[in-house]
Write a structure and sequence with these properties.
The chain has 150 residues and is α+β, with helices and mostly antiparallel strands. The chain has one domain: 3-Layer(aba) Sandwich (Trna Endonuclease, Chain: A, domain 1). 25% of the residues lie in helices and 37% in strands. The protein has helices at 3-16, 70-83, 98-106, and strands at residues 23-28, 31-33, 40-42, 45-49, 55-61, 87-92, 109-116, 122-129, 135-143. Strands 1-4-5-6-7-8-9 form a seven-stranded mixed beta sheet, sandwiched between helices. Strands 2-3 form a two-stranded antiparallel sheet. A hairpin with a 5-residue loop joins strand 4 (45-49) and strand 5 (55-61). Helix 2 (70-83) packs parallel to helix 3 (98-106). The chain is globular.
């Protein structure tokens, strides 16, 4: 798997679980304009909340072994602030450093460890909360076959 395939899997995961995340839409690679800076931002996925149509940003990181760092999570927080997003979801294969998890918890960002399951078209996503990853929220399994880019 590479980052492009992982992003595709994460999009499918978010689309198939949008009711769980309370989203009514999910789109890939939207271009968003910062309300504070006027900067154009490109994020992996974005959605809109069911209850108020608020923007939710989704960042995806495919990694072999490095957990999401504090500075990377802070980057998502900054883009959320600049675009006026009301929520965030961070999806990765490996997990989160403690500082990254603290930032996520402070800003209401959902953390998801999305990994390959027991077959090539099964993926398992653990939604976790807490700076010490001490609160397991939900395991979401999806069956899908990503289109491999040529």
């Amino acid at each position: 798997m590479n980052w492009e395939t992982y992003e595709q899997v994460a999009h499918g995961f978010a689309e198939l679980n949008k009711a769980y995340f309370r989203l009514h839409s999910v789109i890939r690679n939207p271009k968003l304009t910062g309300k504070q800076t006027g900067t154009t931002w490109s994020v992996d996925l974005a959605g809109h909340r069911q209850e108020d149509d608020g923007l939710v940003l989704v960042e995806c990181k495919w990694r072999d072994n490095a957990r999401v760092k504090q500075i990377e999570m802070a980057g998502l927080v900054y883009v959320m602030w600049d675009t006026g997003a009301r929520g965030g979801i961070y999806v990765t294969t490996v997990g989160f450093q403690r500082g990254a998890a603290r930032i996520a918890e402070a800003h209401g960002i959902r953390m998801v460890n999305l990994k390959s399951g027991d077959s090539e078209d099964t993926y398992s996503g653990d939604v976790i909360r807490g700076a010490n990853h001490d609160y397991f929220e939900q395991n979401l399994r999806v069956h899908m076959r990503p289109r491999i880019p040529k």
